[in-house]
From TrEMBL:
Family: Belongs to the isocitrate and isopropylmalate dehydrogenases family.
Species this protein is from: Hymenobacter algoricola
Entry protein name: D-malate dehydrogenase (decarboxylating)
Keywords attached to this entry: Manganese, Metal-binding, NAD, Oxidoreductase
Signal peptide: none
Residue stretches making up the Isopropylmalate dehydrogenase-like domain: 5-351
A UniProt-annotated Pfam family: Iso_dh
InterPro entries: ICDH/IPMDH (IPR050501), IsoCit/isopropylmalate_DH_CS (IPR019818), IsoPropMal-DH-like_dom (IPR024084), TTC_DH (IPR011829)
EC number: 1.1.1.83
Reactions listed under catalytic activity: (R)-malate + NAD(+) = pyruvate + CO2 + NADH
Cofactor entry: Mn(2+); Mg(2+)
Length: 365
């Protein structure tokens, strides 16, 4: 029996509800499969923890996590209306991303059968895009400062940091991912028309890395026109690689185009596995929905599926993806974000039931 050790952070808002749902599904999956079990250690580091202690996590939080020997981290959304977002996010999520060198943020954006996209899409093109977002530096490097606060001469600087090591490796990841998963095209999302230093550098590195992958086609798109392309010709978008902020913005667009923020998963990866990777829905903490049992748990459950795939649990990952697809396609059980009236609990139970059926076809990501 193989044990997978998980650090679980219910975190904020609807987090506890969607994380409990994800754990329930994982345990059911393990039960059905037989060969594996999940050992979950829960951490209460969150906005509530901040209210008690003045910190989002203990000063030695990263060391504690590292010492725990976890295979992965499953996290709910972070953020509370009562605390400025930059405090909660830099106090936990962004610190873990940087500290654990999770330099890839992998975000599949796929229109599942049974979901209505806000796009008209008269030809019913399949929409399936994968955002490979640089996740550890760039616009989120955290470098900068403010002087003369509150005075007319105040200056605020947020520097964008691109290093060759990080830029190269995220692009290599994008090409490796494309190759391994049978994608034909990698699009470089850039803004080198106006940003003549960092983005021209970014394009150069892209070209250099691309040269090692002759079998993968490439193209280049300025980030502003990328938003238009994702809306008007989403079928032409396959894998794209983008800087931290550009990837952040485009992945919300992709989530909306594929039907609901309640479906969009993400994987914060340290591909070398020197540190645990972190899996989290891309939606926020949605305090307005807390305690109502209406949050769509599928984004979090799909994130757990990405975790299984990353950990090499291919059979479990395939089975879980197939269950998610079955529930969505079936349309009988759906939460309000998908136009239904089902509860979080009902949706979770539907996934657990669907798991009992063997997967019929190999699925994408
Ligand atoms: C995301 C989120 C975070 C980000 C926020 C909460 C800091 O929007 O994971 O996309 O910008 O990366
Ligand atoms: Mn975001």
């Amino acid at each position: 029996m193989k044990t997978i050790n998980l650090a679980v952070f219910p975190a904020d808002g609807i987090g506890p509800e969607v994380i409990a749902a994800s754990q329930q599904v994982l345990h059911r999956l393990a039960q059905l499969h037989g060969g594996v079990s999940f050992e979950c250690r829960e951490f209460d580091w969150s906005s509530a923890y901040y209210h008690k202690t003045g910190r989002m996590m203990p000063a030695d939080g990263l060391q504690q996590l590292e010492a725990g020997g976890f295979d992965a981290i499953l996290m709910g959304p972070v953020g509370s209306p009562a605390i400025p977002d930059h405090i909660t996010l830099w106090g936990l999520l962004l610190t873990i991303r940087q500290g654990f060198d999770q330099y890839v943020n992998l975000r599949p954006m796929r229109l599942l059968a049974g979901v209505v996209s806000p796009l008209l899409n008269p030809h019913r093109h399949p929409i399936s895009m994968v955002c490979i977002r640089e996740n550890s530096e760039g616009e989120y490097a955290g470098v900068g400062g403010r002087v003369h606060q509150g005075k007319p001469g105040e200056v605020a600087i947020q520097s964008i940091v691109f290093t060759r090591r990080v830029t190269e490796r995220v692009m290599r990841f994008a090409f490796d991912y494309a190759r391994q998963h049978g994608h034909r095209l990698v699009t470089n999302v850039t803004k080198s028309n106006s940003m003549q230093h960092n983005m021209v550098f970014w394009d150069e590195v892209f070209q250099q890395v691309a040269a090692h992958y002759p079998a993968v086609a490439t193209d280049q798109q300025l980030v502003d026109s990328m938003t238009a392309r994702m809306v008007s010709q989403p079928e032409t978008v396959d894998v794209f690689v983008a800087s931290n902020l550009f990837g952040d913005i485009l992945s919300d667009l992709g989530a909306a185009l594929t039907g609901s923020m309640g479906l969009a998963p993400s994987a914060n990866l340290n591909p070398e596995r020197h540190y645990p990777s972190l899996f989290q829905a891309i939606h926020g903490s949605a305090f307005g929905l807390v305690g109502k049992n209406v949050a769509n748990p599928l984004a979090s459950i799909w994130s757990a599926q990405l975790m299984l795939a990353f950990l090499g649990e291919t059979e479990l990952a395939t089975r879980l993806m197939s269950a998610i697809e079955t529930v969505v396609q079936d349309q009988r059980v759906r939460t309000p974000d998908l136009g239904g009236t089902s509860s979080t609990t009902e949706m979770t139970e539907a996934v657990c039931r669907a798991l009992e059926t063997e997967p019929t076809a190999a699925t994408g990501h």
